[in-house]
Amino acid sequence: MAGSQYGKAQVHYDLTSDEYSAVHDRFVRGHRVVDLRGYLVGTEDRYAVVYEPDASTVRWWSHPRLDPDGLEATKADHLAEGRRPVLFTGYASSAGRSFAGVWDDVPGPQRSLHYDQPIDAFRTHEARARRREKRVVDLSAYRHVVPTERSLFSTIWDDDDGRTDWMLTGPSDSPRAQAEFDRHSAAGWSVVRSSGWSGPDGVRYVTLWERVASTFVAVHGWDRPALERDLAAHQADGLRPEQLGPYPVDSPPVARYTPIWRRRDADVVVPALVAEFARGYGLPAVSLAIARGDQVIYTHGHGELVQPEGPGLGSDLVVPGVGTIPEPVITPARPVDPDGTLFRIASVSKTITAAAVLRLVERGTIGLDDQPFAARGALAAFAPTPADSRLRDIRVRHLLQHGAGGWPNDGDDPMWSHRELSTDDLVRTVLAETPLDTDPGTAYAYSNFGYCLLGRLIEAVTGRTYAQHVREDLLRACGVTGMLTARDAPPNGDIIRCYPAPGDEDPYRIRIDRMDAHGGWLATAVDVLRFAVRVDGSGPDVLDPSSVAFMTTPSGLAGNSGYGAGWTTSDDDDAEPGVGFHSGVLPGATGLLQRAPDGLTAVVLTNTNVRHDTPDRTTDTLAGLFRLLARIRGQVDYW
Fold it and tell me: Which ranges carry the Beta-lactamase-related domain (predicted)?
């Protein structure tokens, strides 16, 4: 058995069956398999595996030793559960031939598995995949010696979106494989998978290529000393191993290797992961921005900005005191710009509102223990005859921590009621008609309406509209000048079109204009990031350390799930351990602001919210965002 950590990768080879099981048990959590091969050394089965860190909630299943009957049963089980094959190989084994494969539950296009294909049909197989507009995403070749020796291969096909920037080469002997490598790599192609086998005509190789500009090293026919030498050398060069590719030779009976190393630059890794995520969830557009400390280090836009064809982006209802916003002018589609395209950020807005309130607390304008609805409170005029006398016991800290005692974000969320009313009239109506559920300060209940009240509090103590104060006081101090609330947004401009998921409400018929303080901001991914890195305690910040600590420390309220004041800081079903975040979901919008212990802060925004159902699990776009950011952090070495 040999194995070690090289950079972020765990590399293990020459494993017996028991050794493989032990390694698998060590790395099944917090990692994913990027290469799994079985091979025969003399009469002994051996296994090689490469793991990469992956803190996402992607679940995967590996099967290192399947016979043909077991393979068919495994395929059927995973298909029935909505899982997809991601790695697959056949190999000569002590049983004649066996199979190894990995399946996961990442949403995406359908995939089909093809195995025991005769090597003579290799070129025909590639042509058939292209005719059917499929994309080959994995490849292996192997020999089968019972009852007669044959050379076979396997592939995984991905239902694709029309991209054709892939090709197969081989079967080739060593000189021809080297010539193909020199020619195609010089033309901008990168090796994705390479597989060798020892057949009747000697050792041959087949290779899968994609046209991706990446720094990589791929070799073939390496013995174990050469492999171990290069694993150490390429680690020093900043290259990460992603394939070992062992195969057996008979004289003497040893293993040879077709290893691949790649430099994991963000410019190569992130676009591919974002594209896979967008295809899997059917997302028209994605905007991503990442910072280390207080510096933006990477941005990426996927999709196009297309103006809505319907009424304006504020509200298409006649709103007292607001009127109707005219229809926008349709403009040609343009690529999504993370520093220029505005998205609805939904409840990520709460982080902004919390920071704005805490700046007022620092100045003494507001106190965390102020009671806004007490007799002389700043919001007392909104509730002259409240439905619940306990309203007067609510403190500012309760509103920030979702502990006011009522108005939860459930089927009776007040923010979705009385759609004919203005914001102020809605507040008066709810306070007069809806009693609290619990005593203030005793239990957590996530409340959009509670943050709406914080917006009204800001207006009452500053004499300005919520949006004016936040833009001029908080956002300007963060270097942010382009953010708008949907109420104040012009009908035209660089605002992404929102798309409803099946069965969801029309994004342009909800009262987004009333959601300012809890879910109504429009922002670019970069501007959300510029704000976030100025309130994270890493300095220079626009908040005192005590305010940052208050925002990011769980409230201690019953059922708080790690929520502080505008940030969640403990585990979520879909989040990585140890990260702080706030998410946002509306019809036609999903967003996530996340900061991790490694110093990276990320913002990712999309323009729809869809569910992905399998028989054993339901996920949605937000779960996909958590997965995406975890995979990016695990796979990128260089920003």
Answer: 272-616
Task: Check: CB of residue 563 under 8 Å from CB of residue 575.
Answer: no
φ/ψ region of 221 (left if φ > 0, alpha if ψ in -120 to 50, else beta) reads left
How far apart are the C-alpha atoms of 440 and 390, rounded to whole Å? Answer: 7
> How far, in Å, are 219, 470, 472, 475 from residue 480 at the CA level?
49, 11, 10, 5
Distance CA 141, CA 117 (A): 9
The candidate with the shortest Cα–Cα distance to 487, out of 452, 460, 457, is 452
Over the stretch 591-638, which tens digit does the pLDDT of each residue have?
Answer: 999 998 888 999 999 999 987 666 655 678 999 999 999 999 989 999
Q: How far is CA 583 from CA 87, 261, 351, in A?
A: 32, 36, 10
Sign of CA pseudo-dihedral 367, 368, 369, 371: positive
The residue type found at 480 is V
SS3 content of the chain, % helix, strand, coil (to 5): 30, 30, 40
Check if the beta carbon of residue 169 is closer than 8 Å to that of residue 122: no
Amino acid identity, residue 632?
I
The predicted model scores a pTM of: 0.88
Closest residue by Cα to residue 164 from 118, 198, 215, 130:
130
* Beta-carbon-side half-sphere exposure of residue 598 (alpha carbons within 13 Å): 14
Reported as a pLDDT band with limits 50, 70 and 90, residue 108 is confident
- Write the pLDDT tens digit of every residue in 63-88: 999 999 999 999 999 999 989 999 99
Structure tokens at 16: 């017996």
Topology (CATH level 3) of domain 270-635: Beta-lactamase (3.40.710)
Query: Which of 486, 297, 280, 279 has the alpha carbon at shortest distance from 288?
Result: 297
Please answer whether residues 34 and 260 qualify as being in contact, where contact means their C-beta atoms are separated by less than 8 angstroms. no
The two three-digit tokens of residue 39, written as one number: 């091979």
Please compute, for residue 437, the number of CA atoms within 13 A of its CA located in the half-sphere on the CB side.
17
- How distant is the alpha carbon of residue 279 from its chain centre? 12
User: Taking a C-beta distance cutoff of 8 angstroms, is the pair 106, 79 a contact?
Assistant: no
Note whether 625 and 592 are within 8 A (CB): yes
Phi, psi of 510 (to 5 degrees): -95, 160
Q: Which helix (H) or strand (E) holds 341?
A: none
Does residue 225 have a cis bond before it (omega within 30 degrees)?
no
Could you give the C-alpha distances from 506 to 303, 334, 416, 588, in angstroms and in order?
21, 23, 13, 8
* pLDDT at position 318 over 60: no
- Residues 6+ away with beta carbon under 8 Å from 354: 400, 454, 551, 565, 566, 567
CA–CA gap between residue 415 and residue 449 (Å, rounded): 6
Structure tokens at 625: 């965002």
List, as one string, the DSSP characters of 96-165: EEEEEEEEE----S-EEEEEEEEGGGHHHHHHHHHHTTEEEEEEEEEEE-SSS-EEEEEEEEEE-SS---
Query: Is 576's pLDDT higher than 80?
Result: no
Spell out the residues 6+ positions from residue 52 whose beta carbon is closer than 8 angstroms to its own.
8, 9, 10, 31, 32, 34, 240, 242, 634, 635
Instruction: Quickly count: other Cβ atoms within 10 Å of residue 335's Cβ.
Output: 12
